[in-house]
Write a structure and sequence with these properties.
This protein has 13 helices and 13 strands. The mean pLDDT is 92.
């Protein structure tokens, strides 16, 4: 394997459970091994670390999401050591922190080709003006030393263009891949509801995501509290974990509506949970293009989502769900209430969800597009030499 002609070093901040991490692991494991040898450099920890057991993973000390000048400098030093040691043909960075430190290290170490994927931006409208401007400035600098900038959504691509991050000649749209053949899952719905202690005849509202400020679980809870006070046949289930999980569960229990609003942590049976659901909601404040939305649509669920970044690429109001202005919990409440009260409307939007064209999100299509891109960039580099 070490004699493979082209070595790809993927750099990502941490192998926690998320779309960027799952895609990176899948890509590294499934690129054509006759053409590419893929390995990963990542910060320590993360629930997906064990998923990379068959891959070569280099753990980078001090590489983490939080900003800390001293630890970031140490992480940069260890990234440089890894790149010099591995001598990759391509350095492919993912996520904001690893994207900045990794590309700077790759440039310093004279990596032949540098590629970065924006799975979403490290800046957003909720940040202070100064913090956002620093992130934008760093992305502009790093774009200058990057050969290809990959986006998972058209919205992120347009944002980058407006902020003068890189040049459109560097831009490529490659969707975040999903194993679409898993959706919808084939299960016994009654048994699954019983397993999760959900009533057989209840309406199930699901959301999926990491419990970070980005995913904004507070608005999900507000909605659940309001609906559950009016309807005792509707249950809210949030699939996902994070540092706030324990505190959120305690708060819900303290307000006595944990029967109707459940945070169940990370699960490996997301496809099965979507199968028993009636409606999917997403209250994210910034995104690339959420994989959970693609999974929900493939499962035939009407989706109520804040109109955030790439969500509008595939969610169309009154066709397969509703786009809601960010933070407008009143509108989301009204739309959700209409769906719960109107079976005909629910059926119509469910059919629209199932009819959504998601072929470009197939995970093996993503891998093939990346393989082609790697080959093209290597060929270009050889021609220049």
């Amino acid at each position: 394997m070490k004699n493979s002609p082209h070595k790809i070093l993927h750099i990502i901040t941490k192998l926690e459970l998320g779309g960027a991490q799952q895609n990176t692991l899948y890509t590294a494991a499934n690129t054509d091994k006759k053409k590419f040898y893929s390995l990963i450099a990542s910060g320590k920890g993360g629930i997906l670390s064990a998923s990379g057991a068959d891959l070569e993973i280099i753990y980078i000390p001090y590489l983490r999401r939080e900003i800390n000048p001293i630890k970031d400098a140490l992480a940069f030093y260890h990234l440089c050591r890894a790149i010099k040691s591995q001598k990759p043909d391509i350095v492919h960075t993912h996520s904001s922190k690893a994207g900045i430190l990794g590309r700077l290290a790759a440039r310093l170490c004279k990596a032949p080709i540098i590629i970065h994927t924006f799975h979403g931006f490290g800046f957003n409208k909720r940040q202070s003006f100064i913090k956002k401007r620093i992130f934008v400035f760093l992305e502009r600098i790093c774009a200058r030393i990057t050969d290809i900038l990959i986006f998972v959504s058209k919205s992120n691509m347009e944002t980058a263009k407006a902020l003068k991050i890189g040049n459109v000649t560097q831009y490529k749209l490659i969707r975040s891949g999903i194993a679409l053949d898993k959706y919808p899952a084939q299960i016994n719905i009654a048994d699954k509801k019983e397993q999760l202690k959900l009533p057989a005849g209840g309406k199930i509202i699901v959301s999926v995501g990491n419990l970070k400020p980005q995913k904004n679980p507070c608005d999900f809870i507000k909605l659940a509290k309001r609906i559950s006070s009016e309807r005792h046949d509707t249950y809210f289930v949030f699939v996902g974990g994070g540092e706030k999980l324990k505190k959120i569960k305690q708060d819900i229990a303290g307000e006595n509506f944990s029967e109707y609003c459940r945070f169940i942590g990370w699960r490996e049976d997301v496809a099965e949970i979507l199968k028993i659901a009636d409606i999917f909601i997403l209250t994210s404040l910034w995104e690339g293009l959420p994989r959970s939305l693609v999974e929900a649509l493939k499962s035939g669920l009407p989706c109520l989502c804040y109109d955030t970044d790439g969500v509008s690429d595939i969610l169309k109001s009154e066709k397969n769900g509703y786009l809601i202005r960010q933070g407008d919990t009143e509108d989301m409440y009204n739309k959700l209430k209409s769906l719960l009260q109107n079976d005909e409307l629910l059926t119509k939007l469910s059919e629209g969800a199932r009819d959504t064209d998601l072929k470009e999100f197939a995970i093996d299509t993503m891998v093939k597009q990346l393989e082609n891109l790697y080959s093209q960039e290597i060929s270009k580099k050889r021609t220049k030499l």
